[in-house]
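Follow-up to my post from last week.
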Amino acid sequence: MSSVTGAKRQRRYAMTVDTRLCVGCKACVLACKAENAVPDGLCRDWVVEETRGEFPALSMEIRSERCNHCTEAPCVANCPTGASHVNEGGAVLVTHYKCSGCKACIAACPYEARFVHPDGYVDKCTFCLHRVKKGGQPACVSICPTATLTFGDANDPASAVSSQLASRRSKVLHPESGADPNLHFLL
Amino acid sequence: MTTTRRDFIRIGGTGFGAAAVGTGITTKWWGLDGDRVHDPGTEGDRVVPTFCELCFWKCGVLAHVKGERVTKIVGNPEHPLSRGRLCPRGTGGVGLLYDPDRLKKPLLRRSPKRGEQKFEEVSWKEALDFTASKMDDIRQKHGPETLALFSHGNGGSFFKTLMAAYGSSTISAPSYAQCRGPREVGFDLTFGSVLGSPEILDIENTRVLTLIGSHLGENMHNTQVQDMARMIGKGGELVVVDPRFSIAAGKARYWLPIKPGTDIALLLAWIKVILDEDLFDREYVAKYATGLDELRKHVEGKTPEWAFTETTIAPNVIVETARFIAGARPASLVHPGRHAVWYGDDTQRSRAIAILDALLGSWGRRGGIFVPSTLAVPKVHVPDYPAAKTANDKPGGKAYPFAYEILSDGLCNASIPASPSENPAVRGWLVYGSNLPMTLPQPKVVVEAAQHLDLLCAIDVLPAEITGFADVVLPECTYLERWEDLGPFGWREPFVALRQPVVPPMFDSKPGWWMAKELANRLGLGDFFPYEDAGKMVEERLKAGGHDPEKAKAKGVVLGKKVPVTTEDGLVLSFKTPSGKIELYSQRLAAAGADPLPNYTRPEEPPPGHFRLLFGRSPVHTFARTTNNRFLGTVTSENELWLAAKAAKEQGLENGEAVVLVNQDGVRSQPVRLKVTQRIRPDCVYTVHGFGHTSKGLRFARNRGMDDQRLITRVKIDPIAGTTGMSVNFVRIEKAEPADLVGAVGSIAPAGSVAAAAGAAAGSGHGGEA
Amino acid sequence: MNTQLLETVHGRSNHLVDPTLSIWGWQIVLYLFLGGLVAGILVLAAGLQLKEGRRPLSAVLRWAPLSALGLLSLGMFFLWLDLEHPFFAFRFYMLFHLTSPMSWGAWILLLVYPAGILLALTSLTEGERGLVSGRLPASLRGGFSSLAAWADASRRPILLTAAFSGVALGLYTGLLLGTMPARLAWNSALLGPLFLASGTSTGAAFLLLFALDAGERKTLMTWDAAAIGTELALIALMVLGFATGPEPARFAAGLLLGGKYTAVFWSVVVVAGLLVPLGLEAIEARRHLPFTLLIPLLVLAGGLALRWILLAAGQESAFRLLS
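User reply:
Got it. Predicted complex:
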């Protein structure tokens, strides 16, 4: 997307998770719950700790995970009512009053990032778009004590996210899903 | 009439067209059915800065209030400790504010025996009259020093003032003898200063950070973890010495799975390598330290090969890590630790760490230990305090000349008469925010001591176990509902922070300052609280210091002018030791008949079939203080027992099953979920401290998880600091029997019980051995 | 050095999602079963008429389309029960989303009703039409007769449309499941045709439970056998595809070849539900033995079990479970 043609560049929201820094404290989980009034027993983001090897030759990877807001989101493709849709910056959102609760999106999600809200609709991480639209950052990004999370426009070469992706080794989860996720784990 | 193909196509086409129109294009076109971004509406109408009290780090927070309700708590970007970011506990403050189990009204004991938890709700007048009259009795009959204050938390300052006015300096915090004591004594003996809390460490600029046991990351002390992350981001590295593969170990360049109790051997070997290979900061040591020759002589023979036989860490690893650590000097820091009461030789271990840090040149240096600066604010003018006395906290006459704080366990023991005819040295307890039965070792002693007291007054926010033993319980409102005094604060930059009410106190709870003032008035000590209202007092103090109170209340902090805190900034180093230098060899210890240089003593081996019991922290909780918090409980609501996979296999134990621990004295624990893991040595087990509550009033935390404190029946007293080494208990593991599981709540609750269903959702996630 | 992933602590425990997905239960199993059955009935009923060129001889077969619509309505009720936001179900019909098999399904289900009613009209005798007309409110009877007349004149297109809607109904559920890479045990292009074949055989089996004209019974049994044979072939190909595919596919194969569902799948679905009925049908045809109800009952049980197992297996397979 270049400015040479004068065409307006599309924003592509993405998040990076620096696995070197993440300590798995779960402040992101609680901050999200508070910010988004996520009901008890449910979470929009979570921490996964993986240990490899046998004592004493061990290694760990810690990841703060959430919806990947995939570019080829199978949840959006599968939604029969248009409730799951692509919003600003490519963020994948659910419009509550369009959702019938059929759960096709939950089945289609390679990352199992969605859940059924007690009110009946399907819910998940929204990249705190309600904050981002006002120039803010997602709640998890703001709270993280180790600054593990970075959010921004991956199509903007000057953004922190872009420079991280350009300069660090990174991975996405289950690329074989074909969903083209936008949550990148810096290694 | 036959349907022609054309008809068919026409009908089909119309249908298809209708469907196409129905694709919502029509409605979307005219914006009739758009996709609004949902706003959860948690942003506050007003945002009030204060500082947190879910732990004692005191991070600055911003509390969002919508209408009457606090919706969320986030970090205050202006505050030097939180810098706008919070740990999970700080975020969980709403769970404390709206905890349905909060103490709501003053309580007076109505059962003949303390601990039966039978109380009557009374008015504040009645409760305060009772407390004051008992306090008066004690000072008249036995002397004011026989009243002890156990205090934990910033709000305790008002009760300390009360005690000073009353004439007692018998003030103790378990954080000395049950936590940081040996470290402070060790570092004070070496450098002439303690490290305090938050520790004055410049971790952000460290190049190699060596952690002995400190499990930063699980130990979620906000600023330190933030700094560690910044350090890693800048290319800094970790060396972790821990019997367990902690989160920090997972990020370390070197993990040394050391045999518990042998850290001093490793430290001595490191010192030897660093001295032998001339890897220490020669100039710094020459300029600022004494005792190098004695040290050199002392570590002769403390070779890596020798250390290997004690620690099980390979000699080449000891050498390699010594070189790695020293190579980064002076921005190389061996973390002094925090909770240091492990094996009873803890002051000597802290000395070894301090000596190593001195060799690395880290005191007063960038990336090491900085010298804090404070913003002084004039205090309230009060009359001269009377001369205060202290009760003997060392029954049996044992002297700990280097203990600079009173031993909480000592006071507890001193409350029990040595014989029926004798008077105990301590006759009354005021307990401010200190849950002694889950804090002091040998909880049975706490229960026993409580029976002999003339007064046990507990001031708390929640019905913690200590309140069950009280004669009178005074319900304090949470940190979000009260003013507190401005504390002095030493940090990289001078500042003071405000704790101000965000919402009015709920129920009939009151702030601590009001309680202390009311008691003072009744005891004729009202002059020591010469203000109507603590809020006004703080404002006056700020004004007297030349600060604008309104600005301070809006910002939550008052920042002072930065002064040099390291030599790189221009600081001139000085040491408040007798010699005026860093004392590698400690004359003071020698004079007291103790080892002037650290010696290694081999730890006990666990009895056959037993494991050493180790404990630590969860990032989501502050031990027993927060485990009733239902909001935090949505993420972590119980602890687990970590057992090495190899050991589990030998014992026929499986991941996730309910087990019970039995210690060397036959004490049986509550049931706990077993975590079979590769991440720990096979000779020890580990759990997070603070679960297994028994208080009836803590309806969420009660019977959830296991309390390790009751298994700490054995302690090893550090002969120098008088502190209680608690990692000296050994346990064997049994499968939990049905009788053990009765009443258990959480993931191991008996199947089919209501408690099991409740516990299924919350918990520490599902996982374990694949 | 061993770098095997031995321990994962997964901090999420969302209802219906963790520890494994359990979003679709008996309601969906029954819908899939009924939907497949109905699809089969439509295909068979229309197919029979296309073959014979006249309305069916058996009353059962003539009433089959209407009863199928009744069964379909029951199935759709179960579908509606499964919805978490049921009073927003109308949203299915405010949109046709090309990439959503569920959207296709919603509209196909709508199409099946008129197709089925028209098929019923072509099947029913004058007398039977009268019975139906008699049950309608007087105002609609005129329209009903015109429709019936039109149906008589448009037999062939109606039969083809009915067959087509049956095929679409039978295929789409399999495609819905089969086009989700996230659900490893569903991810096969053969799932659509498999569900159609299974629907045809269960549809035939359902019809064979009732009294039928001998010739039509024979035809149905032959077609049932063909459907069963096709099912067996498709199952074999599907399992083969999984077993020789990349890691996610092999995980799916594992569930059916040595894993959790192996025993029940091969014994109930394949042997009892397919091989035994096929064998019995062959024996019956050869030896001219009297017909037994056992055959259709086994087929129906096998069809239900197939959907139950596949629905469970798909929800229990996820990328996350791959090591």
